[in-house]
């Protein structure tokens, strides 16, 4: 399948640069897979499209402030570092900017409590290796000097870091927010529970697997980076009972979808913690998901391909064209879609 099928033109002004003050006041497109019908609502009206016997599944992963700005000890040149993954002890996989001008042996000073030494580059993974030196508690230091790793298309400085978290974020580990969940306010979740809809949480820490675009011309050749997920025994039991009872399972976000589908083995969802590199694109047969809440995604992105697999490529891209016509806000801080 040619990746150019997932290209579309989006004026830069459509890319949301900041979140709305009221989370659930974003626009919501309802997309019916069976009829092709499109409706335009506000996000808080999603409750009208949720059924009392639905199972709503959310990702409680929390974004860690892993974007660091430092300077080279020798030259004073500015270096931006994105911590990707701890390899062992104090050795981290990182992305560097500027990478080519920060060779192995470069010492980077972030603060009086944190510095790092570039050890080398992992060509296969496309990352640098940074050995960090810490004076104090690493999490506390990150909390003080680290910045939220907002995507590069967001040019505006984030004024309130908590606005790039879901209100139920609980498990630290993500490099990017599970943005479909950002639309849920505390009041809306309370109303949903009051309607009798069951809500459960799982965890998938969003990393490079989700936010790296498909570079290969052929979709099938793309290899996703692994991401860590966890499903408790109780929530696995609830999901499996919902499957047996033929209840609709509503996934909030592509991260929830990939977790549910990755954990489905031999007709049931397995509990536990694992790594997944599941890449869902058109042609995939969904085993668990019954409806999907998702944002409007970048061209050639893996979340876009997952949404196209669930809705159908032609229907989804038609809906995107209508969203552009109706001036929807796109990407991380943008509006939402409920595919039913």
TrEMBL record:
**What gene name does this entry carry?**
queA
Q: Which organism is it from?
A: uncultured Atribacterota bacterium
Query: Gene3D superfamilies annotated for this entry?
Result: QueA-like (2.40.10.240)
Q: What is its main location?
A: cytoplasm
Entry protein name: S-adenosylmethionine:tRNA ribosyltransferase-isomerase
Hey, which pathway is this one from? tRNA modification; tRNA-queuosine biosynthesis
Pfam families according to UniProt: Queuosine_synth
Q: Which GO terms describe its molecular function?
A: S-adenosylmethionine:tRNA ribosyltransferase-isomerase activity
Lineage in the entry? Bacteria, Pseudomonadati, Atribacterota, environmental samples
Similarity comment text for this entry: Belongs to the QueA family.
Its UniProt entry gives the catalysed reaction(s) as: 7-aminomethyl-7-carbaguanosine(34) in tRNA + S-adenosyl-L-methionine = epoxyqueuosine(34) in tRNA + adenine + L-methionine + 2 H(+)
UniProt key word Iron-sulfur: no
Mention one GO biological process in which this protein takes part, according to its record: tRNA queuosine(34) biosynthetic process
């Amino acid at each position: 399948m040619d990746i150019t099928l997932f290209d579309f033109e989006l004026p830069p002004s459509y890319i949301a640069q900041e979140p709305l003050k009221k989370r659930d006041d974003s626009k919501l497109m309802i997309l019916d897979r069976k009829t092709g019908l499109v409706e335009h609502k506000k996000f808080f009206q999603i409750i009208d499209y949720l059924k009392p016997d639905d199972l709503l599944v959310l990702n409680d992963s929390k974004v860690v402030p892993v974007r660091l700005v430092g300077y080279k000890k020798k030259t004073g040149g500015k270096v931006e570092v994105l911590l990707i993954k701890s390899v062992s002890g104090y050795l981290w996989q990182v992305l560097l900017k500027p990478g080519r001008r920060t060779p192995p042996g470069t010492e980077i000073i972030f603060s009086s409590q944190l510095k790092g030494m570039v050890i080398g580059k992992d060509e296969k993974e496309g990352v640098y290796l940074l050995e960090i030196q810490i004076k104090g508690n690493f999490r506390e230091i990150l909390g003080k000097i680290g910045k939220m790793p907002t995507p590069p298309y967001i040019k505006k400085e984030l004024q309130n870091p908590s606005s790039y978290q879901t209100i139920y974020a609980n498990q630290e580990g993500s490099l990017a927010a599970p943005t479909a969940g950002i639309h849920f306010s505390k009041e809306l979740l309370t109303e949903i529970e009051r309607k009798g809809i069951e809500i459960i949480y799982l965890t998938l820490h969003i990393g490079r697997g989700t936010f790296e675009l498909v570079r290969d011309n052929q979709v099938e050749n793309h290899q996703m980076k692994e991401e860590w997920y966890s499903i408790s025994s109780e929530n696995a039991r609830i999901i499996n009972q919902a499957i047996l009872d033929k209840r609709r399972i509503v996934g909030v976000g592509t991260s929830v979808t990939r977790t549910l589908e990755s954990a489905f083995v031999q007709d049931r969802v397995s509990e536990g913690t694992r790594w997944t590199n599941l890449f869902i694109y058109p042609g995939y047969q969904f085993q668990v998901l019954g409806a999907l809440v998702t944002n409007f995604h970048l061209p050639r992105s893996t979340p876009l391909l997952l949404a196209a697999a669930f809705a159908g490529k032609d229907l989804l891209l038609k809906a995107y064209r209508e969203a552009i016509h109706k001036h929807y806000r796109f990407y991380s801080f943008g509006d939402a879609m409920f595919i039913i």
